[in-house]
């Protein structure tokens, strides 16, 4: 009987780990205006990393890079053809044109930093 309980507890822990690492997604931040939304670049993540925006509406993203490593010095919006250099500890505004509905990923040039714009129709 106790072996069964241990097995069930083990399965529950595995399930929790799977959910935490693969299934949970960071909550998106909704942009309600075209004012610049600030994105911090530090500790290997864009904060926030998921940004919900209205499709078709141009917006400004204000990147503040706090990571001195060269890894973080560029931000690339691959499918939009936009690349920007991010100076250290200074705000850099990146103008984003109106987006087609769907997800648009942005990364550092090596793809270690990852974020996405989620354009809602
Ligand atoms: Cu990188």
From TrEMBL:
<feature type="domain" description="EfeO-type cupredoxin-like">
    <location>
        <begin position="14"/>
        <end position="119"/>
    </location>
</feature>
<keyword id="KW-1133">Transmembrane helix</keyword>
<keyword id="KW-0472">Membrane</keyword>
<dbReference type="InterPro" id="IPR008972">
    <property type="entry name" value="Cupredoxin"/>
</dbReference>
<feature type="transmembrane region" description="Helical">
    <location>
        <begin position="6"/>
        <end position="23"/>
    </location>
</feature>
<dbReference type="InterPro" id="IPR028096">
    <property type="entry name" value="EfeO_Cupredoxin"/>
</dbReference>
<dbReference type="Pfam" id="PF13473">
    <property type="entry name" value="Cupredoxin_1"/>
</dbReference>
<keyword id="KW-0812">Transmembrane</keyword>
<protein>
    <recommendedName>
        <fullName>EfeO-type cupredoxin-like domain-containing protein</fullName>
    </recommendedName>
</protein>
């Amino acid at each position: 009987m106790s072996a069964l309980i241990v097995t069930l507890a083990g399965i529950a822990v595995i399930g929790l780990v799977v959910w935490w690492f693969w299934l949970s997604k960071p909550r998106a931040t909704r942009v309600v205006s075209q004012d610049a939304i600030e994105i911090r670049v530090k500790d290997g993540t864009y904060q926030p990393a998921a940004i919900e925006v209205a499709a078709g509406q141009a917006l400004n993203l204000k990147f503040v890079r706090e990571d001195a490593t060269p890894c973080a010095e560029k931000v690339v919006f691959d499918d939009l053809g936009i690349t920007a250099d991010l100076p250290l500890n200074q705000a850099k505004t990146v103008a984003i044109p109106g987006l087609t509905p769907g997800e648009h990923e942005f990364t550092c040039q090596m793809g270690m930093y990852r974020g996405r714009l989620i354009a809602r129709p």
